Amino acid sequence: MILSRRRIAPLSNVGAWIGAVVLVMVVVIALVGPWLAPHSPDQPIAAPFTPPGSGHPLGTDFLGRDVLSRLLWGGRSVLLFAGAATTIAYAVGLAVGLLAGYSRSWIDPALMRSVDILLAFPALVFILLLAAALGTGIWSVLLATAVIQVPGIARIIRTATLEQSVRGFVEVAVLRGETTPSILRREILPNIAGPISADIGLRFTWSVILIASVNFLGLGLQPPAADWGVMVSENRGGLNLNPYAMLAPALILGALTVAINLVSDSLARRYR
Amino acid sequence: MNVPPAILEVDDLKITTTSGDAILEEASLTLARGEILGVVGESGSGKSTLALAMLGYTRDGTRVERGSVRIDGTDLLQLPERERRRRRGRVASYVPQEPGQALNPSLRVGAAILDVIREHGAAVPGQVGRVLTAVHLPATKQFARRYPHELSGGQQQRVTIGMALSCQPPVIVFDEPTTGLDVITQAGIIEEIRRLRDERDAAMVYVSHDLAVVAALADRIMVVYAGRVVEHGRAAALVQTPRHPYTRGLIQSIPDPSRPRTLIPMRGTGAGVGQWPAGCPFEPRCPQRVDACATAVPPLEPAGDERSVRCIRWRDTPPVDLGDRLGGNPSKRSGGALLQVEDLLAVHRGADTVVAANGVTFAIGEQQCVALVGESGSGKTTVARAIIGLHRPEAGTIVFDGESLAGHARDRTATQRQRIQYVFQNPYDSLNPRQRIADALARPARLLRGLKGQQATDEVARLLDRVRLPQTIANRYPHQLSGGERQRVAIARALAARPDLLICDEITSALDVSVQAAILEVLDDLRSQLGLTILLITHDLGVVSAIADHVIVLQRGCILEAGPVMDILAQPTDAYTTQLIDAAPRMRIA
Asked: CATH assignment of B332-429+500-583, given 3.40.50.970, 3.40.50.300, 3.30.360.10, 1.20.1250.20?
């Protein structure tokens, strides 16, 4: 006679392992890919949208360049720029959220209302504005992608911090005379690692998508550059001629984001 | 035994975790209408598992290995889940431990009761009012429209009891319904349950860690230890002449304000699920163990007079020894005043401002133990938080060793912060879950006393010794410890600063009574060994009687009376103090 329900823990572990393996594979492809590429990523080798054949296993793109070579080249910029944008966004959002959540004074509304102003802008419009102000180019896109994500991150961190800052062990630290930075780092940060690690994967995904769409608009990376996001957008026209030109980078981007979220979810569960 | 027909029969129930470790074994009992069975055990003993099984419910991660739970002849465990769910509330209902968490905060009281009634049939007009009346709550529209957070703890618990009664089930299970309530409210709820038993003619199971509460209420008592019933019998007789050494140990660790004495705690701590010894589960802690105890689990033997005991040496269990009566000369320890609080005024600002302390004036002499007593909302915690510097008072002075203290801890000197330490009520909240015990203990020693490297490591070892924790705990995280162990760590952390004054805020109220006795013993030893001065915040006069020299009774922010513990407990002059003493549950032991 068995009355109970089984726990789902083992399944989530399997998910985390799959995520970790895929993540490592994608990162390795992005890092060492350029040395493995059979052709140059910028030079046409056949007619545009040639289907797969010998010498070009994934066919060619809209300018007749080798899709496989561009795929092997195109990961670096995704990891670099999306990674950098997420890191900057988190560095700022974490600082704002921790301070606002812990301060319990005018600092909280002052910080939160000023980042809230950013919420008034749709992400793309904001990036366009910033690009107009700072000039086009990947660095202003990167900066804009980071800044536009700060309010969301700050909000999550602030709420999580508020919850922790009323707990007994934080009061104990105050009573010992710990400084605010030390309380934030030793008492609060380790205890909000759960929501942070759940959120960070999602933010990275958004960064990839935002940067890809801005690149598509021609504001970020300039045309000859190989980038998975750029490849998806520039080859959309040839979907029925050589579908691999668009599907291959789309698939690898999808695998990357799913893998990151699987890993970050399992980290979040571990921190509970 | 004149046997009325049993309504509830549990037979040879065994519940295990899904990984196969036993949580409860060989549990059998019968219960008739109009009878109250008390189930007593410490946390992890399997008592809540047993309580839930009586509703045909098992927690996630546990399963029923064998046995049956029959109510009115039907085995709940054989029914499909849907059927079992339909019977909960109608055939057997449950009153949970924390009403504040069990009531849906977004549901008005009336709606919550109506939900239960509708679940099991159509509602009749006026039925909600009748339920409220039954548990002595106002049966008005205004009351039914309140949200749980607008009720006091006692009122919330009355609502959950009302919900459990609403479909007139023949079996009602109470799972620690008064834990967390103050004594006067607790006495009210117990009176309520007793009255309902007489009116409703229902069979009731009352689960608690506190033998004194159960003894005041139950007809029969079942003592559970490490998943097994170790003693079972008539309530009065069981408390008077316990046959199992564990029952005896429990009785000796329970304080009684009408009989102040030094408590005698049991050795060691209860083993967790999966770590039970092969023989008698109590053997490692037992004062009357013999080699045979370690080889096999003893059977539950009949011991005459409707009693059964799971101990091969039950005939040798000595009578209850309540230890020395206190009553010596507590004032011998008083030196000069270490702390003086004068005219303290503290308020809580919010939607409506509440005065938490008004004109509070008292002094604590060096090496004294002073207890600040009152029910929840009396302002005792606010006074303590003002002294430590977590609540800025509106007016008044706090003088510590001749120096006037600033309102907030941040504005005080490092020495002042080091000399006064605070132990919080809830050890589940006051230890950082991400810090190893060694780090939690070393930090204050480094910061407040400037210890470095090896010195700090040695100090951690000494501190663990002081509070009688094994050294192996140093490398663990708080979640790997029991509540009692965590509270010892919290005390050790306060000691790491080498304080002169230790403020203990309800430090035993979240713990089992047997653990409480051990913690109080540690505290008493620290006082004599280190010359600590202690300010004890508590609602429990039993705790006061066991350890304090002086007592201060607070109500609504004002001091009602103050004086030596012996005088106040023996001859309270204030009506409220009398009420507090009378409400304390006690076992009548000749």
From this structure: 3.40.50.300
